[in-house]
Write a structure and sequence with these properties.
single chain, about 60 residues, Structural Genomics Hypothetical 15.5 Kd Protein In mrcA-pckA Intergenic Region, Chain A, globular
């Protein structure tokens, strides 16, 4: 997705190796529209499915 310019980080198209930091805005273009995520924390290991929402917040526009 990064190679086809479907992923932006803080408004800039990025390569897959780009580091993500707390407070970054990640935007992913999908067939149903662009989804935006605010990075809240960076995990240090495996993340349980039930805990995944601790690391990001999806931004919805009204």
């Amino acid at each position: 997705m990064c190679d086809k310019n479907y992923v932006r980080l803080n408004g800039h198209y990025v390569k897959p190796s780009k580091a993500v930091n707390i407070g970054d805005l990640l935007e992913i273009e999908t067939p149903k529209g662009t989804r935006k995520f605010l990075i809240q924390d960076i995990p240090t290991g495996n993340v349980k499915k039930a805990e995944r929402n601790l690391y990001y917040q999806e931004i919805t526009e009204i």
